[in-house]
Amino acid sequence: MSAVLYDVPGPRGRARNLLIGVVGTLLLLAAVGFVVYRLAATGQFAGRLWEWIEFKNIQLLLLDALWNTLRAFAVAAVLSLLFGAVFAAGRLSDHPWLSRPSTAIVEFFRAVPLLVLIFILFFGLTKGLGVQITAFWAVVLGLMLYNGSVLAEIFRAGVRALPRGQSEAAYGLGMRKTQVMTNVLLPQAVRSMLPTIISQLVVVLKDTALGFLILYPELLYQARYLGGQGQLGSPILPVAIVIAAIYIAMCLLLSLVANVLERRTRRSAKAGPVDPGAPAEGLVLAAQAGSRDA
Amino acid sequence: MNVLLDNLGLYGTAFLGTIELFVVAAIGSLAGGLLLAGMRVSPVPVLRAFGTGYVNTVRNTPLTLVFFFFAFAYPRLDILDLSFFTRACVALTVYTSAFVCEVLRSGVNTVPVGQAEASRALGFSFGQTVSTIILPQAVRAVVPPLTNVQIALLKNTTIAAGFSVFEAGGIYQRLSELGYNVLVGLLWVALGFLILVVPLTLLQRRLEATWSVSR
């Protein structure tokens, strides 16, 4: 294997690599072993701390928590896709009165930490204005504002990366601006950006865990509750391990979809990412949008 | 306006806490990311597998969960008694390292193999190849996305507020106790983050514009 950094190793190189491999393996095993030893020494593997898994009520509680997480994820994902599409279209608009506010909104929500947004929605609006917003909607709307803004940037990048011939041909056929965008540019942009979009949805799924901090009863919240139950032996570590496994499995599944899609788009030349050698990507749109800042 | 002026000291210490967390975790994550990236591009299969496994696991774990682990579960292991601040730094470092690693790795991979092969053919040693051929080219592909990762880290420090570390994300609690308008207080926090993040974003855009290599 010849990589950028290393040539195909010779006999001395192979011996050295083997040595590094053995020492590295030992170090990693020592680290893992230490953690397992500490887990065992503090009695985390004791059957009593894992008994909670067998209780039906707790299983139902966790299922309910999982449902709350997935519900928030699903609603937030749909809303952020909508938000992203609307504001991407807004930023790509020819009209400064549309593109400038869209740019400002997208930039603002990308710069403010998501948690601060959620706090503003939950504590700020409730205590400051007296508008009652449930924890669910605070999480969902926060996720929508932040991830929607990021998705808007992704959509915009996708549209701008299309070869200019696409929009030229569409205009040449006599399509209107809206038609060019909705019938020609957006479908192609979405297709080529699909892996990136799905990766962003993984972020949405991960960030639903922020609901824990405003006491939205999702997985982490219930984990904290279960972990503090004295009559179960306060099994916070076992609970955390199980919850982590659930989160990682869900996110890995979504990431896997993104990877598969990416490989598929790379294989089919038509929908693949635009050839970097192609002349001045998105120049046409930039010229049309005129006043829009780059 | 009153909310900010009456509590300037509060905002000051809070944002100082944020910046402290950010600086410590930024240094930690750069070091950790470099180590992981070194593993991921190394010719040793075991280290490569570990690097890949770490990155895939951590990138698919919510940061809140990492904090949860270090804040509530770690003390049960009785290893070392660390303050909440230190544990928050560790959590942020553990999480951000995976992202730094990916940026570094993909940066190294943007350098065409021919460049390294040519330098080896000219008789350059490994050190010379890396320092004079690969790194100067990889840096251009690395720095803009690395800035992005660090911006994300700066924003992520707010999560520490939920785990007993006083920083900008926790201002609202104090304001609420003091009876101030929380909405106004939080909008000032948002503005504070804008002031911190926007210069970094502008810097990142400039780097991206001036450093993008056409191949």
Characterization of this structure:
The complex is a heterodimer of chains A (294) and B (215). With 294 residues, chain A is mainly α. Chain A has one domain: MetI-like fold. Chain A is built from eleven helices and no strands. Chain A has helices at residues 11-41, 47-50, 56-92, 96-111, 114-129, 135-160, 164-172, 177-207, 219-227, 236-267, 283-289. In chain A, helix 9 runs antiparallel to helix 10 (236-267). Chain B has 215 residues and is mainly alpha-helical. Chain B is built from nine helices and no strands. The longest helix of chain B has 33 residues, at 8-40. Chain B is flat, with a radius of gyration of 21 Å. Chain B starts with a helix and ends with a helix. The relative contact order of chain B is 0.15. The model of chain B has no long low-confidence stretch (mean pLDDT 88). At the A-B interface, helix 1, helix 4, helix 5, helix 8 and helix 9 of A face helix 3, helix 4, helix 6, helix 7 and helix 9 of B.
